[in-house]
Design goal:
The protein is an alpha/beta fold. It is built from 18 helices and 8 strands. A hairpin with a 2-residue loop joins strand 1 and strand 2. The longest helix is centred in the last third of the chain and has 19 residues. The chain is elongated, with a radius of gyration of 24 Å.
């Protein structure tokens, strides 16, 4: 298992993605672990190296005795990054992770490229709430606060729907080392970054949940957004663990902040890059060679807008976009375009099972004749690929 020794303990971590991509560190909430970020990791991997870790006292990381401080938890992150030779990184933290992110941005801004603070606060008041939790855990263990924590983590509707994330988080909460939990409770009890937020100059995004009773916008998120110069804010219809209750919306907000859309010449260059990725070099080279004075502006238009503005949007991966294009071109009977995208898709990430489901959906919503023609073309191209 991947561990590093940071200061006085061992931290468990998970580093995924291609070397050379920008590094994004994801830091979880109290009483959860690095797996809280599973819905985001898969969609983020094409764009970043993703470093997830278990905070001191959580998951597979060691739980040192005594009260912790947010500074101590922040220095754990720095020691982890140093041990992995990561000089700069973007940081996304939720709740406790957001408190750690604030400390990093205040004290070591040269290490951060971007800062995402989700469902968090500069001061987790009132202190009495943490004293009550500490007393409850000392008396009854983690089971003593499980029901209360789950009602704060998720909205009533989400709990009632029996989403599988709910049972997973409850299991992790119950398995959290009480010593580590109490240490982190003390860190949040004693935190107050209110008068230091103006020191943060790192580009920042604040994510809040409209149903979050632990760190609501009023008095928490709005303070961060107001005091951090230039901070952007996103509101999600979710409770405290907004990344689990609204996973795709959370990831889309992350990507739009960390990878803003290209413009001008950058959009043209980005368009050519993704056009080659989707359709292949041979097709693009033929299209460029065939460009005339009559079609030059048209080629620039589709490269800039279709490929540079739409296909580069990170919220949908290329596989999803390919299937959408195929379904729509089949529904409209644009068979030349259908063949082009189907041939390119089969050369990359599309599989026969993808085509089957897409064409069955097309049969229901666009008609059997359209799906029938689509199946014939798919069989033809699949047979050609076998030869």
């Amino acid at each position: 298992m991947p561990f590093v020794r940071t200061n006085d303990i061992r931290l468990f971590y998970r580093l995924e993605g291609n070397h050379g991509l920008p590094v994004l560190i994801l830091s979880h909430s109290i009483s959860t672990d690095h797996q809280m970020w599973a819905p985001q990791a898969q969609d983020l991997l094409p764009h970043f190296q993703i470093l997830r870790y278990d905070t001191r006292g959580h998951g597979a990381s060691d739980a040192s005795a005594g009260d912790y401080t947010v500074e101590q938890l922040g220095r754990d992150v720095l020691a982890l990054a140093d041990s992995l030779s990561i000089p700069k990184f973007a940081f996304c933290g939720l709740s406790l992770g957001g408190a750690i992110g604030q400390w990093l941005a205040i004290h070591v801004p040269e290490r951060l490229t971007h800062l995402v603070l989700a469902n968090t606060s500069p001061a987790f008041t009132p202190r009495s709430r943490w004293e009550e939790r500490i007393a409850a855990v000392k008396k009854g263990g983690m089971a003593g606060i499980a029901d209360l924590a789950m009602q704060r983590f998720f909205s009533a509707d989400f709990l009632a729907a029996k989403n599988p994330y709910v049972s997973g988080i409850r299991s992790v909460l119950l398995g959290t080392d009480a010593v580590g939990y109490l240490g982190c409770c003390a860190a949040l009890r004693d935190l107050d970054h209110t008068h230091d937020l103006q020191k943060i100059k790192t580009p920042a995004l604040i994510i809040t949940g409209d149903r979050d009773v632990s760190t609501p916008w009023a008095g928490h998120g709005e303070v961060l957004a107001r005091e951090i110069s230039g901070a952007k804010a996103v509101h999600l219809p979710a409770a405290h663990l907004s990344n689990l209750e609204r996973p795709r919306s959370f990831t889309a907000a992350l990507l739009e902040f960390l990878q803003p859309p290209s413009s001008g010449e950058d959009a043209i260059n980005a368009g050519f890059k993704v056009r080659r990725e989707v359709l292949g070099d041979a097709h693009v080279d033929r299209a460029v060679a065939a460009t005339t004075d009559l079609t030059r502006e048209f080629q620039a238009l589709i490269t800039r807008y279709a490929w540079g503005a739409i296909w580069t949007r990170p919220a949908l991966d290329h596989r999803t976009r390919r299937l959408l294009v195929l379904a729509m071109t089949a529904a409209l009977g644009r068979w030349e375009e259908f063949r082009l995208h189907l041939r390119a898709g089969l050369a990359h990430e599309l599989e026969p099972s993808d085509l089957k489901e897409m064409l069955l959906q097309t049969a229901i919503y666009a008609g059997v004749p359209a799906a029938n023609t689509g199946f014939h073309i798919a069989e033809e191209l699949l047979s050609a690929n076998k030869n």
